[in-house]
Amino acid sequence: MASSSSYFLLAAVALAALFAVGSCGTELTLTIGKDSSSTKLSLITNVAISEVSVKPKGATDFSDDLKESPANTFTLDSKEPIKGPISFRFAAKAGGYRVVDDVIPADFKAGAVYKTGKQV
């Protein structure tokens, strides 16, 4: 016959496991599109997000929302060369915005993948 402390421990472990599973998400990654250049930044996300904007080095605020086309691909076209590092902002499903500072380095290359550290 198990003691009451064993039942308590089992219940605590079960609750901890449920909490861990419930708080899991997928880490958002950004892939630099193959059509990116010094004046065009194409970002491909691994999960569906919305209201994406960026802030290149030296900018005082985030850009207007980037155009999404095709799905999960967001593009910034600029007349001037885009300077990094670049910060990234997106709308979270739970509400509000998430910001990842300097996630895209100054020397970004087409095809590179960058981890944001943000779970969505």
From TrEMBL:
Chief place of localization: secreted
Name of the protein this chain belongs to: Expansin-like CBD domain-containing protein
Chain ranges of the Expansin-like CBD domain: 49-116
Gene3D superfamilies: Expansin, cellulose-binding-like domain
Subcellular location per the Swiss-Prot or TrEMBL entry: Secreted
Signal peptide: 1-24
InterPro entries named in the record: Allergen_Lolp2, Expansin_CBD, Expansin_CBD_sf
Lineage, opening ranks: Eukaryota, Viridiplantae, Streptophyta, Embryophyta, Tracheophyta
Keyword Signal included in the entry's annotation: yes
SUPFAM superfamilies: PHL pollen allergen
Key words of the record: Secreted, Signal
